[in-house]
Amino acid sequence: MSAEADKALLLMTLDVAVPIRMQQIAHWSIDRILHKAECQRLADSIAEHGDVILFRSGGKKNPTGKAFVELVEALARLAYMPGGVEFAGRVYKSDAQLAAPLGLAKVWPGALSEDDSREASKIRRTDR
Prior knowledge:
Elements: H1 3-25, H2 30-33, H3 36-49, H4 51-54, H5 63-78, E1 85-87, E2 90-94, E3 123-127
Antiparallel strand pairs: 1-2, 2-3
């Protein structure tokens, strides 16, 4: 697969996985979602193993799958920060983020939403 095809596949998969994980953790307290030690662990894991997401590695231990799950978890948690989180031109944002403390993630102000309906489970993803 070409690099462009790999990137497209990663982004499409994230567009499905991140909102699903956001829904799964939506009932958690904001303190649990943004728990400092867990967020630091996720950041360290992504920094250490992020290359296997870009350059897939299979096998019995499946490091690509494990690294992908960590990335999804990090993006889903950061979606609860004010303004959400941007990754590769995508913005993942939850309306339930109002109680989150400021300053932990880059804030993207403005109207980035596509749909503000209740049917969207208060989760929005937009392309920049």
